[in-house]
Amino acid sequence: MTGVNEIRSTFLDYFKKNDHEVVESGPLVPRNDPTLMFANAGMNQFKNVFTGLEKRPYSRAATAQKVVRAGGKHNDLDNVGYTARHHTFFEMLGNFSFGDYFKDRAIEFAWDLITKVYGLPADRLLVTVYAEDTDAAVYWKKIAGLSDDRIIRIPTSDNFWSMGDTGPCGPCSEIFYDHGEHIWGGPPGSAEEDGDRFVEIWNLVFMQYEQTGEGRIDLPRPSIDTGMGLERLATVLQGVHNNYDIDLFKALISASEHETGVDAEGDALGSHRVIADHLRSTSFLIADGVLPSNEGRGYVLRRIMRRAMRHAHLLGAAEPLMHRLVPTLVREMGRAYPELQRAEDLVRDTLKLEEIRFRKTLERGLGLLDSATADLSAGGQLDGETAFKLYDTYGFPLDLTQDALRARDISVDTAGFNAAMQRQKAEARAAWSGSGSAATEAVWFALKEKHGATDFLGYETETAEGVVAAIAAEDKEVAKLSAGESGYVVLNQTPFYGESGGQVGDTGEMLGTDLRVRVTNTQKKAEGLFVHSVVVEEGELVPGLALELKVDRARRTAIRANHSATHLVHEALREVLGSHVVQKGSLVSPERLRFDFAHPKPLAEEELETVESYANEIVLQNAPVETRLMAVDEAIEAGAMALFGEKYGDEVRVVSMGTALHGDKADKTYSLELCGGTHVRRTGDIGLVTLVSEGAVAAGVRRIEALTGSEARAYLESQDRRMREIAGILKTGAEEAPARVAQLVEERRKLERELADARKKLAMGGGGEGGAPVKEAGVFKLMARKVDGINPKDLKGMADEAKVQLGSGVVVLISVAEDGKAAIVTAITQDLTDKVSAVDLVRIGSEALGGRGGGGRPDMAQAGGPDGSKADAAIAAIEAHLAGL
Ligand code: SER
Fold first, then answer.
1. What digits encode the pLDDT tens for the residues 630-651?
2. What CA–CA distance (Å, rounded) separates 380 from 401?
3. Is the distance from CB of 599 to CB of 702 less than 8 angstroms?
4. Which of 54, 116, 619, 843 has the most Cβ atoms closer than 10 angstroms to its Cβ?
5. Residue 169 assigned as binding residue
6. What is the pLDDT of residue 774?
7. 745: phi > 0 → left, psi -120 to 50 → alpha, else beta; which?
8. What is the pLDDT of residue 440?
9. Could you tell me the distance, in angstroms and rounded to a whole number, from the CA of residue 362 to the centre of ligand 1?
10. Is 67 in contact with 230 (CB distance < 8 Å)?
């Protein structure tokens, strides 16, 4: 028997041998097509290659593409569990030619592969062609030798494939397999074509045109896009008639049987199939970055999860089931899709959390459902109010309620459900507009109401496409922004991070045909609306345009590093200082990180060094940075750090990194924090953490600033350069420089002291010979001097010495500084203080120096004056005063 994995690799190998580039599956959330909710065909990722907009280094490719058909245009959700071949998730095998080979070669490859390599009997195969496509019919006859009755011409759009309302398109030819007479159904085009006997396995699209808004134009070069359902092919190759009987599904269903203890038969069979199918779609969606939420893609995921969870409940599972099936899925598909392996923990945790949460209301909701429908019989209808209550209070998505009633043939009044939903929204709006917020905020609230929350793609990608949902300027919605104008743009989805949690908003550009828009900031408004501040540089921006969105990658890379480093510094601070360290604020920008935290005193040099080295130890571990979704209380219980007073939803992203090397946490996860920010993939991407400052912001709150990566390196380089400059000046090596500087400082201090002493001596007449000149002023001996270059604070000491020299008398010292200002000190020996006051004298001197006031005691006073050139006049004035006494 040929297993699914072998069938897939056989396909890819075949085309590789035939010069095709084997390209990885595009992500389930398309990056290049904003109108698609999920990837729904192999050609999605090549859309622009077909139209010539994008060039690739190859012109032939082959892929196994992950596809989800739930939500959006193609929605198979309701059929799963009830038909043999519907899935919410499946794999599409495809080969592509971008202007290389065309119809004949595509038919040759397909026929060769299925009949020679896979060995399908030719007599079980038939094909359809578009009625007008004579070429295709001729090739099938020539290449495959099919008789005319096995080449069915279909005139409808069934055989003209288009990607959507616009985009590449062309006639197609489908290959059908006949499962045999014992199965009901007729060939394509017949009345019984919906039966399971004739199953389409491969669709070859001859891409020839591009459908534009104006009409259909020729593609630059005719191309090929084919798609084969892997599960359907496996069904044929494994000789079964139901997709759920192939090896892959058997493994999943047997895991589900094992975990529930219920055999997959009778009524239970459908539930097991739903569970197996939904396990694949939910796991792959989570691995591609979708997380359950109440809007957009996240809500589709939640609907699928909860639908499966009800079936687990139907099977009587006493404990959450889905997460226990993940290892089996990873074993079956992880090799082909390593992203599934990488995200295994995230997938498991997310499924478990959702199931624990949902089980809390599931039982009661089902009770309500039972009582509300007790009186209904087949053909009856559940009222919309109850369906809405189930949705609003018990978390039952509408389709889950419908699914639950399907077996009893009871429908739901969806119009009534929608009306109840609208009423609730109107109430919310009324309650909100009463809150009196600013006019601009009102715009965002209204836009959020109208367009829903923006789908954020930025955890996974920095480039994507998005459709302009609305434009605003100042405080109102506008119809356009022209070149040179600035305003705000809201899109259906965006890779731009909206400022929050301390992390600054992204910048970058938005591009369209003849349109260039610069994004200068991105902010989050009205709970989930991403508002881009923009300047239109070229062209005209209007709602409805699909734009290429490009986050400034270098800037974002630096932001990621700084954000992850903030977590490491936070944990290192707790390790070094203690668990009283709690975050008080943070700023994560591309240039640096700033972290405020509670701590009563400045950090010692040694503490800072240890914090820095602990953070860098984790950088060197190059440990993967893991993100999970958890319930808040569960996360906090697990030790995740949360910001006190911060509003968190019921579920939170928890970011963990590194393994602790020392302390109580040794060998456990190093950093675990609730965080909605963007982070590096591995701690090594941070490069290096350097603390550059530590200081106080408020009582008991310290602030640390740090740099990472190239900023840190540039900083250290400049420090190093300065160090070398210093060493150069000192004419010594960098090693000896600090000791040399300390020595110089000490020498200088000594020299200053010596210089001051020398000056004093000089001022007072120098070297002890004779001392300063003494005059007679009235009855007083007066020693008065102008002393230059003496520090004013030394004057008093000098005056004291002069008093000793005089024995009895008056001392006046005036020092004039370089800026011309004067300081004056007057002193009187104790025996004379009843005759004259030093304070009176200093006032007279100060006045002469152009100053005013001065003060002190009767025996010693001091003052200043702006005009040092009047020093002699000041002395003369004092002398005259003394003479007059
Ligand atoms: N695009 C086509 C399809 O989805 C063939 O790959 O069927």
1. 877 778 778 887 765 555 566 7
2. 14
3. yes
4. 619
5. no
6. 86
7. alpha
8. 63
9. 38
10. no
Region of residue 133 (phi > 0: left; psi between -120 and 50: alpha; otherwise: beta):
beta
**Tens of pLDDT, residues 833-852:** 999 999 999 999 999 999 98
Distance 230 CA to ligand 1 centre (A): 13
Alpha carbon distance 613, 597 (integer Å): 19
Q: Are 49 and 220 in contact (CB under 8 A)?
A: no
Q: Is 186 or 34 the better-scoring residue by pLDDT?
A: 186
Shortest-distance atom of ligand 1 to CA 227 = 6
**Does 41 sit in the ligand 1 pocket, CB within 6 Å?**
yes
- Cα 348 from chain centre: 22
- For residue 57, report the distance from its CA to the centre of ligand 1, in Å: 23
Q: Exposure string (b/e) for 67-79, b if CB count within 10 Å is 16 or more?
A: bbbbbeeeebbbe
Coil/strand/helix, residue 77: helix
CB of 226 closer than 6 angstroms to any ligand 1 atom: yes
What are the distances in angstroms from CA 63 to CA 9, 12, 127? 10, 7, 23
323 belongs to an annotated ligand binding site: no
- Cβ of 401 closer than 6 Å to ligand 1, yes or no, is no
Cα(305)–Cα(23) distance, integer angstroms: 30
Determine the residue of 161, 174, 201 to mutate for testing ligand 1's pocket, defined as the one with the most ligand atoms within 8 A of the Cβ atom. Answer: 161
Say which range, 343-352, 394-403, 479-488, has the weakest mean pLDDT.
343-352
Q: Ligand 1 within 6 A of 227 CB?
A: yes
Long-range contacts of 215-222 (CB under 8 A, 24+ apart): 216/169, 219/50, 219/51, 219/52, 219/99, 219/168, 220/51, 220/52, 220/99, 221/52, 221/98, 221/99, 222/99, 222/102, 222/103, 222/170
- In this structure, what are the phi and psi dihedrals at residue 546, rounded to the nearest 5 degrees? -95, 125
CA distances from 228 to 81, 280, 564 (A): 21, 18, 43
Measured in angstroms, how far is the CA atom of residue 40 from the centroid of ligand 1?
8
Dist. CA 455–CA 453, nearest whole Å: 6
Would you say the CB of residue 225 lies under 6 angstroms from ligand 1?
A: yes
Neighbours of 510 (CB within 10 A): 25
Residue 43: CB within 6 Å of ligand 1?
A: yes
Q: Which residues contact 852 (CB under 8 A, 6 or more apart)?
A: 846
User: SS3 helix, strand, coil % of the chain, rounded to 5?
Assistant: 40, 25, 30
- 3-class SS at 702? strand
**Residue 172 assigned ligand-binding role:** no
User: Global pTM?
Assistant: 0.70
Q: How far is the CA of 547 from the centre of ligand 1 (A)?
A: 24
Distance 162 CA to ligand 1 centre (A): 9
Question: If you take atom 2 of ligand 1, which residue's CA is the nearest one?
Answer: 227
Question: What separation in Å is there between the alpha carbon of 41 and the centre of ligand 1?
Answer: 5
- pLDDT-based confidence at 82, cuts 50/70/90? confident
Cβ atoms 355, 385 nearer than 8 A: no
- 41 CA closest ligand 1 atom index: 4
Which mutation among 43, 65, 174, 200 tests ligand 1's pocket best, with the greatest number of atoms within 8 A of CB? 43
**Main-chain dihedrals φ then ψ at residue 299, nearest 5 degrees:** -75, -35
pLDDT grade for 755, boundaries at 50, 70 and 90: confident
Average pLDDT over every residue of 72-97: 85
For residue 240, report the phi and psi dihedrals to the nearest 5 degrees.
Answer: -110, 175
Location of structure tokens 């997460």: 323
**From CA 445, how far away is CA 462, in angstroms rounded?**
26
Phi-psi region of 387 (alpha: psi -120 to 50; beta: other; left: phi over 0): alpha
Q: How far is the CA of 43 from the centre of ligand 1 (A)?
A: 7
599 is in an annotated binding site: no
Top pLDDT among 349 and 362 is at 362
Does ligand 1 come within 6 angstroms of the Cβ of 203? yes
